[in-house]
Design brief:
Mean pLDDT: 85
Helix content: over 70%
Order of helices and strands: HHHHHHHHHHHHHH
Radius of gyration: 23 Å
Structural class: mainly alpha
Number of domains: 3
Number of helices: 14
Strand content: under 5%
């Protein structure tokens, strides 16, 4: 916001009207389609008066969401840093607990700041804030790779995970968490749902395509996967289990090119689900 001087009561009242009008406009139309002229009119101020507070629409949108955006990203970075500082032999024991605690913290904050998070998640196209989920995904992928290195140092075998499939799965996880905010899930239900997501370490190993489909709890995702041919599902399952493309091709008696082609088609279908 322009200027750092102490504001008068009138300034505060004007700013509150601008924020209220902007929030209503952005919530209804999103950043890209919102009109600064409409915001100024609804706030009952002149355009000149508005520019005494903000340089434009982008700065105004930031005033409504930047603090919440920085909190979410910061909380995730802090959780990763705290985990990295643990003694290496303690990390496997704390991996699931640390991740779950961070998700609970972010979810509780998101419920307490619902409107700002909704603006970020669903109304921020055209701003840097629209990339919040992507930033969290990149942080999670980097943290996961660091954890794989920890497992190797401890003498564990770490299977190869296809990086594209890994990115899709992590994106799905992040979207699943924040969809609870977007769809106004009651907070108590959201807590239980998050607990269910955290139970993955206690779930039985998925060994067959049938097990794979049975493990899908999201109905929309299930409806997509149930229509996919069994060979492609078998390839996806083996990718999740850590098999290389060459190993899959040999096991299923198909070419490596066929494996890549089927995975590319599956990824396109999954991208539509996560959009």
């Amino acid at each position: 916001m322009k200027g750092e001087s102490i504001m008068s009561i009138d300034d505060i009242s004007t700013l509150e009207r601008i924020h209220s009008a902007a929030k209503a406009e952005f919530m209804e139309k999103g950043y890209r389609s919102s009109s600064l002229r409409s915001i100024v009119k609804a706030a009952g101020v002149t355009t000149g008066a508005f520019y005494g507070y903000y340089a434009g629409k982008q700065e105004l949108f930031a005033a409504l969401v930047d603090e919440e955006y920085r909190y979410i990203i910061g909380a995730y970075k802090d959780a990763l840093t705290e985990f990295e500082q643990l003694p290496i032999e303690q990390k496997p024991e704390h991996m699931g607990k640390a991740g779950h605690a961070c998700m609970v913290k972010m979810l509780e904050y998101s419920f307490d700041h619902h409107d700002a998070l909704f603006l970020i998640l669903r109304r921020s196209e055209g701003t840097k804030y629209s990339g919040m989920i992507d930033e969290l995904v990149e942080l999670e992928v980097e943290g996961t790779h660091n954890y794989y290195e920890v497992l190797r140092q401890l003498g564990n075998t770490v299977p190869h995970i296809d990086e594209h499939l890994e990115h899709i799965l992590v994106t799905g996880m992040m979207n699943a968490v924040f969809e609870m905010i977007v769809h106004d899930m009651p907070q108590a239900d959201a807590g239980r749902y998050l607990d269910e997501l955290a139970e993955d370490t206690t779930q039985p190993e998925v060994k067959t395509v049938e097990d794979f489909l049975d493990s899908i709890e999201n109905q929309c995702l299930y409806q997509i996967l149930i229509k996919v041919d069994r060979l492609t599902l078998q390839i996806a399952l083996m990718k999740i289990q850590g098999y290389s493309t060459r190993e899959i091709a040999v096991y299923l008696d198909i070419t490596e090119k066929a494996v890549y082609r089927r995975m590319d088609r599956l990824k396109e279908k999954l991208k539509k689900f996560f959009e």
